[in-house]
Structure formats: C-alpha cells, structure tokens
UniProtKB/TrEMBL annotation:
Residues 162-185 are annotated as: Disordered. Keywords: DNA-binding, Transcription, Transcription regulation. This is TetR family transcriptional regulator. It comes from Actinoplanes xinjiangensis. Residues 1-37 form the HTH tetR-type domain.
Length: 185
C-alpha cells in the first residue's frame, strides 16, 4: 500500500481510507483493467449470438484476445495467489465473472440440445474455462512460440470440439467476435 500511495503522490492513509484493504485495492486494479479493455461489453456481445455454439466460440475468442493484453498482470496474480490472500481475492473476483460467462454459454447450449452428451453445463463451463486459462495461453504462446492469433483459433476450436455437438454449418468456419478484422471485406 505504501508503494501505491507513493506512486500516486498521496498518503498511505488516504489509500486505506478509500480501499480499506490491499485486497480491495487489487480488485479495483483488475476491475479497472477490465473496464479499460472493454471486456464486459465484448463478452456480452459475443454471448448475444443467436446460435449458442457460435456464442461460446465468440466468447472464447473475445476472452483470449483480452487474455493476451492482461497476460503480464494476470501472471503476477497467478504466481502470488497461493501465498498472498489479497492476490487470491482479486484473482477469484475476476475469474468468477469469467466462469459465469462460460456457464451462461454452456447453459444455452444445453437448453438448445447442443452440449456434448455426458456433459452438464457446469462441467462444460469448467472445461472451457480451464482450456482457455492464462497458464495454457502462456504455454502455447511463450513456451511453444505460437502466435496469439493461432492460439486463439486453435483453442476456440478445441473448446467447441470438447463441449459441443458441433457447428450448425461446419463449412462456415469459426465464429467471429464483434470487431474482428476478419469480419470486414
């Protein structure tokens, strides 16, 4: 808190008065990042696709595009969350919202009869969430040297293959998130 106060040019007491705890400061920081990245709107747009499988795929693409941007901060929270309860609080806050988006998508798929047989919506959401986690992103982009676009495309396809009965029209290719450059032209 002292470092934050010093960087902001205010007293540590002022930081504590506003945030009450280090955990609430961390949560505020990551929520601010989310607001700056407009991730909520992007995910809501993705989930608004009429076809529930396309909605999940667009949601995955939106999340992974954002994951690439927040990767450094997210990795720091991941690395410290087991030893730092405040980092754990911030991480759980953000991941809880992300998992809720996955649950919404997989519930829609189940309602439409598009969830892979043997999976319930909660399990499918957990699988999709884990398959698109920051550590998986790191392994594929950093450790394996794949481009972000390739990883996004492959993970979106892998998630759809893992949890759905497939696309309505397999020839149409992957869903596109709103604002995706491939949509123009």
């Amino acid at each position: 808190m002292a470092d934050v106060a010093r960087e902001a040019g205010i007293s540590r007491q002022a930081v504590y008065l506003h945030f009450n705890s280090r955990a609430s400061l961390f949560v505020a920081v990551v929520r601010h990042m989310d607001e700056q990245g407009d991730i909520r709107r992007r995910c809501e747009q993705a989930l608004s696709h009429d076809d529930p499988v396309e909605a999940l795929e667009a949601f995955v693409l939106a999340w992974l595009r954002y994951a690439a941007k927040i990767h450094p901060v997210a990795s720091a929270f991941l690395a410290s969350r087991h030893d730092d309860p405040d980092a754990m609080t911030a991480w759980n806050d953000r991941m809880g919202e992300l998992r809720a988006g996955f649950r919404h998508a997989t519930q829609r798929m189940a309602t439409a009869g598009r969830l892979r047989p043997g999976l319930d919506p909660a399990t499918a959401a957990d699988l999709a969430w884990a398959m698109t986690s920051i550590p998986v992103w790191e392994q594929l982009t950093i450790d394996c040297g794949r481009t972000g676009e390739t990883v996004r495309r492959h993970l979106a396809g892998a998630v759809i293959d893992a949890v759905s009965t497939g696309h309505t029209d397999p020839s149409r290719g992957p869903a596109q998130e709103p604002g995706d450059a491939r949509m123009s032209g």
